[in-house]
Amino acid sequence: MRGLHCDGRSIRLRRDLQDPAPKSNRFQTVRVSFAGICDTDLQLARGYMGYQGILGHEFVGTLSDGRRVTAEINNSCRVCPVCLNGRPNHCPARTVIGIVGHDGAMADHVLVQTDNIHFVPDTIDDSEAVFIEPLAAAFRVPEQVPFGPESSLAVLGDGKLGILCAWVARLHGAKVSLIGKHAAKLALSGADIATHLLDEISALRRRFDVVIDVTGSASGLATALTLVQPGGTIVLKTTVAADHALNLAPVVVDEVRVVGSRCGPFPTAIRALAERQINVRPLIESVYSLDDAELAFEAASRKGAKKVLLRI
Amino acid sequence: MRGLHCDGRSIRLRRDLQDPAPKSNRFQTVRVSFAGICDTDLQLARGYMGYQGILGHEFVGTLSDGRRVTAEINNSCRVCPVCLNGRPNHCPARTVIGIVGHDGAMADHVLVQTDNIHFVPDTIDDSEAVFIEPLAAAFRVPEQVPFGPESSLAVLGDGKLGILCAWVARLHGAKVSLIGKHAAKLALSGADIATHLLDEISALRRRFDVVIDVTGSASGLATALTLVQPGGTIVLKTTVAADHALNLAPVVVDEVRVVGSRCGPFPTAIRALAERQINVRPLIESVYSLDDAELAFEAASRKGAKKVLLRI
Lengths: 312, 312
Description:
The structure is a homodimer. Chain A has helices at 39-45, 81-84, 126-129, 132-144, 160-171, 183-187, 220-227, 249-253, 266-274, 293-301, and strands at residues 3-6, 11-14, 27-37, 53-54, 58-62, 68-71, 74-75, 95-97, 101-102, 109-113, 117-119, 152-156, 175-180, 193-197, 208-213, 228-236, 244-246, 257-260, 284-289, 307-311. In chain A, helix 4 (132-144) packs across helix 5 and helix 4 (132-144) crosses helix 9. The termini of chain A are close together. Chain A is built from ten helices and 20 strands. The longest helix of chain A has 13 residues, at 132-144. Strand 17 of chain A pairs antiparallel with strand 17 (244-246) of chain B.
């Protein structure tokens, strides 16, 4: 089969790959229809975490019986203390589709863990369904940090995930400010969300109950610390691989909470898309064939690019 | 009057100071009986935060009518949005006794905000009452992070505040491990608390629901991140003035919460001392006269020193 392979330094479309075969009924094969390129993919393609294998963890496809599905990406053992404690996404023995030790979905077929499968209703089309995984990650935030109509919330970073986080916060009734570097991307957030360019935020000092850092930049936390009010919460939504010099004294003096946030609830994201609570179509930049995956990665790497999709 | 003055670089006992006089009934004068030297005082004496004035924020004394009192240290305006929102300890206009813009208690007299005064029962003697402020800071942790008999909790740092935090956690039923560099200080924690030398903790990796960092060291958070389990909480209890290189990726990947923690509930600390739930006497190193305050600071600075008190 075809698959976009990462050798730990660069990517290359291969056509000589074996179809994956499930070793037990714990896994099933999904024939992939669409996959999305996310910033993590761009980082992995450049060598982040030394990943070697097929990329892709945002996808939709069909089971052998034709039903449309997507799947959560953490393959966990379900029997260790962490899993039994209700945190399978943190299973120390886990693999992660397209990220850690498990081939991803930018290929004709991908193996998914049976109990990670979610059915996709007909009201969500393939190009929208690719957003289920990142939208679930955005819905993780209100699971961890309670907020509502009484809350002022800032999202720092106007990338795809930043805009999804802003929409989810708005859906929960929060007063939302989206802060970023690109006027065109800020404009995508639509009505009901205040937008600010990053270099015009001095008036917003200490104004927010919750700040979500989706900058993907090592300096994001320091900026977030200037925006959050004493006793407030900063959610760290993107990993930055590098060490960064940081003064944590404000965290203590202002009793700030810093909360790491990763994967979220697929059912919530599927419902929000199916019920048109959130419309992800304005976030789509372009669609490429898997055969042009390398061109697609170039397009996704361009400054200000929205979500680039691969038709498999 | 006498007072231990810090000029922003060093300390000196002065005998030529004006008695403080309250400008309104928002403040009252306390005649100080005892004051404690804490690590923050040692840092301020070396120039931390550029504080200039009289040191001392752990103290007990008497009002003009002879009643024994101590006082909370944040003098807040009580009328700004932060105060009215129930967070007077974070008032942006606050001064802090002996730390920010308000003369401290290592002097014959100190001004305290009237609504910060707490009466000290006769069952708590003066040398114990000096611990009310740091013990309240330890009781701040369970206000912010719920834990109980089902929780495994590590305290990282075997200083006075570390041991107080361990005792408070034990009082809440948690299974407590105290980790530090000094066998003699670890031994002070008493029965019911497991103790570990810092260089013998490799087996404790990812074992704790809650880790309280009271190291006062910039490397404390990195160590705490190795001890906490995925989804767990790290409480930062001491400020470190310097920038420090840190990789925050584990915070996101493991969805750790990092919670800054500062001043706590005086009534809870007073009750715990009065009811002998916590016995602070083993933490007292020695008592000096205020006249020998400079010697007392030398004693408090010695490696492994317990709490040094000043008799005023």
